[in-house]
Design goal:
Bound molecules: pyridoxal-5'-phosphate
Helix content: 25-40%
Number of domains: 2
CATH class of the largest domain: Alpha Beta
Radius of gyration: 21 Å
CATH superfamily of the largest domain: Type I PLP-dependent aspartate aminotransferase-like (Major domain)
Structural class: alpha/beta
Number of strands: 12
Largest sheet: 7 strands, mixed
Shape: globular
CATH architecture of the largest domain: 3-Layer(aba) Sandwich
Order of helices and strands: HHEHEHEHEHEHEEHHHEHEHEEHEH
Length: 402
C-alpha cells in the first residue's frame, strides 16, 4: 500500500456502531464501568482515550512500527523519552544545531538530574565514534536540523551508536514519515513535534514518541499516564483530519521550498542558502540517499545589517512572522531572536546561528506568489540580482541533475 493510501486507510475503519465514515471525537474524561475495575479498555482519558488511541495507531502505521504514544507537545514527548530512558550519570549526544527547546531541556532540566549532554558534529568523520563511551545512553539525531537544515547519515549513526551500546532517537519532525523512515535506517525511537507538518494547520500543539521495541516503549508509555502530559481528544481528532492530506501537503511544501531556494540563491543580498535539495548543500548526497524528498524548510543567511533583517522578516505579504513551521500558511522567523533564543548567544555564535539567519516555512500557497514576495523583500534591501551562486539548482530526487 502506497503512503498516500496508508494515511487514509490504515487503522481508520468506519466507526463500528453507526458506520460513520469519520470517527467521532470521544470528548470524555471518564468511562462508565460494568463492575469496579471492569471496563471495555478505557477507564480514564489520561490513561487511554479512543480518539487518541486511533491517532496513535495511525502514526505507528505511518512510521512502520507498532508502538506510539501521544503527548501534549513535542517537548513533552522528548521529555518522556529522556526521563524514561536515561538515569543519573548517563550521557546524551546531540548534534550542534539541535532544536533550541531540546537544547534547553537537556542543558537546563536533565543536567540537574545528572544527565550530561555532549555536542558532536556527526558530519565530521569519526567524531561520533570518538565521543561514544559506556556512559552514552542516547544518540539524538535531527536530520534535517533546525534551522540550518544539516543532514546526517542516520544509518551510519545507528551503526556506530549500536556498536557502543547506545540507542538512537530521531526527531523526524522536519522530514515527516513521507520523506524519511528512520526505523528502516536503524533508529530505535522516533519523536515528532506533531504540531508541525503532521497536524499541518497551525492549530494544534502535540507530540509523539514511536518505538520499534516494546521494551524501549514501556517506560515512555508508563510516563504518558504517570506524568499525564496528554493531548485532548479534540486535538487528536484535528491531527487525524490533518494527516489525511499529509502526503499532498508535504509535497507542495517541498516544491515551494525548492522554488524559494533556487530564487534566493541568485540574489546579491543572500550570503547563503540552506536547503538540502541544492547540490552544493554539504548533506545533499546523503539526503538524496536517505530521503524521498528534500523537505519543506529552508533557511537563508542575509548579507544585511540587523535592521534590514528585521525589515525583511516583518514586511512579507504571505509569510507571517512567527515561531513554528509546517502549516499550510507560510511562516518566517529569525531563529536567533525567536526559536533559538534560549541558546546562549556565545553558543549560537559558535553554532553559526547568526542574527542574519532567516528561516522560512513555505506553506501550500502558489510558489509564484511566495517567490515574488521573497524576491521583493530582498530587492528592497538593495543590490542587484546576480547569476545564481548555487547555479546548478535543486536536484529533484530520482531525477537527473538540473
Ligand atoms: C525539530 C523540532 N523538534 C521538537 C520541537 C518541539 O515541539 P513542540 O513545539 O510541539 O513542543 C520543535 C518545535 O519547534 C521542533 O522544531
Amino acid at each position: 500500500m502506497q503512503f498516500a493510501t496508508r494515511t487514509i486507510h490504515l487503522a481508520q475503519p468506519s466507526e463500528p456502531q453507526t458506520g460513520a465514515l469519520v470517527a467521532p471525537i470521544f470528548q470524555t474524561s471518564t468511562f462508565e464501568q460494568e463492575l469496579p475495575g471492569q471496563h471495555r479498555g478505557f477507564d480514564y482519558s489520561r490513561t487511554n482515550n479512543p480518539t487518541r488511541q486511533r491517532l496513535e495507531a495511525v502514526l505507528a502505521a505511518l512510521e512502520g512500527v507498532e508502538h506510539a504514544a501521544l503527548f501534549a507537545s513535542g517537548l513533552a514527548a522528548e521529555h518522556a523519552v529522556l526521563q524514561g530512558l536515561t538515569s543519573p550519570g548517563d550521557e546524551v549526544v546531540i548534534p550542534p544545531d539541535v532544536y533550541g527547546g531540546t537544547h534547553r531541556l537537556l542543558h537546563q532540566v536533565f543536567a540537574r538530574q545528572g544527565v550530561t549532554t555532549t555536542v558532536v558534529d556527526y558530519a565530521q568523520p569519526g567524531a561520533l565514534e570518538r565521543a561514544l563511551s559506556p556512559r552514552t545512553r542516547l544518540v539524538w539525531v535531527e536530520s534535517p536540523t533546525n534551522p540550518r537544515l544539516m543532514i546526517y547519515d542516520i544509518a551510519a549513526i545507528c551503526r556506530a551508536a549500536h556498536a557502543a551500546g547506545a540507542l538512537v532517537v530521531v526527531d523526524n519532525t522536519f522530514a515527516t514519515p513521507v520523506f524519511q523512515q528512520p526505523f528502516s535506517l536503524g533508529a530505535d525511537l522516533v519523536v515528532h513535534s506533531v504540531t508541525k507538518y503532521l497536524a499541518g494547520h497551525s492549530d494544534v500543539i502535540q507530540g509523539a514518541v514511536l518505538a520499534r521495541e516494546a521494551e524501549r516503549f514501556a517506560p515512555v508509555k508508563f510516563l504518558q499516564n504517570a506524568c499525564g502530559g496528554v493531548p485532548s481528544p479534540f486535538d487528536c481528532w484535528l491531527t487525524l483530519r490533518g494527516l489525511k492530506t499529509l502526503e499532498l501537503r508535504v509535497r507542495r511544501h517541498a516544491e515551494n521550498a525548492a522554488a524559494l531556494a533556487r530564487a534566493a540563491a541568485g540574489h546579491a543580498r543572500v550570503a547563503r542558502v540552506y536547503y538540502p535539495g541544492l547540490r552544493e548543500h554539504a548533506g545533499h548526497e546523503i539526503a538524496a540517499r536517505q530521503m524521498t524528498g528534500f523537505g519543506g524548510m529552508l533557511s537563508i543567511e542575509l548579507d544585511a545589517p540587523l535592521d534590514d533583517v528585521r525589515r525583511f522578516v516583518t514586511q512579507r505579504r504571505y509569510f507571517a512572522l512567527g515561531e513554528s513551521l509546517g502549516g499550510v500558511k507560510s511562516l518566517i522567523c529569525q531563529p536567533a531572536a525567536m526559536t533559538h533564543a534560549s541558546i546562549p548567544a556565545e553558543t549560537r555564535a559558535r553554532l553559526g546561528l547568526s542574527d542574519s539567519l532567516v528561516r522560512l516555512s513555505p506553506g501550500i500557497e502558489a510558489a509564484e506568489d511566495l517567490v515574488e514576495d521573497v524576491l521583493e523583500g530582498l530587492d528592497a534591501l538593495g543590490g542587484a540580482r546576480i547569476a545564481p551562486r548555487y547555479g546548478r539548482g535543486v536536484a529533484p530526487l530520482g531525477a537527473a541533475a538540473v
